[in-house]
Amino acid sequence: DVVLTQTPSILSATIGQSVSISCRSSQSLLDSDGNTYLYWFLQRPGQSPQRLIYLVSNLGSGVPNRFSGSGSGTDFTLKISGVEAEDLGVYYCMQATHAPWTFGGGTKLELK
Amino acid sequence: EVQLVESGGGLVQPGRSLKLSCAASGFTFSNYGMHWIRQAPTKGLEWVASISPSGGSTYYRDSVKGRFTISRDNAKSTLYLQMDSLRSEDTATYYCATPSFDYWGQGVMVTVSS
Question: Using one digit for the tens of pLDDT, what is the confidence trace for B45-62?
């Protein structure tokens, strides 16, 4: 199975600070169809996960543009340009290139 | 508005069965594959199973193969997960999700314990 390693596991930030989360894959996530099926999700406390980013860098519907995704192959990054209070929670990357689909271990974003 | 509403969870003894449902609305259910994803208490997310739009193709993680069955009734816009021979490690909140993971249900809790 593909292993996704997220760092850091805990991220402390102040409101307005820009932060980044890394997601490294144990193998390339470039599919034979040319797409890279790498997603980012936010799970706020007590809520279902919400998709933020799909196909590495595409912003989900209704997702604020302070979120951005980048990367290729095995290295991917989620950046939040100016953390807001509503951004607190656990962030997960996920790959759907290689079955079984797998998730990273999560990054908890908390207030400093 | 897309809505996914799971039901059927509860407390069940090891070795017994449970069937989850996911009622979908707000989109043409029969056109889309669907997923089940679970989350054990205080743990991360884990993909469980997926099904094609017609139901003709199904996919499972190894730990549930032969025990869980994903199915769908397109006439009722409902997704199912039949869980047999349940184990304590199946204890989790189970979510259904649309094919690109853009919509998730609220989740349903399954507790396997004697």
Answer: 999 999 999 999 999 999
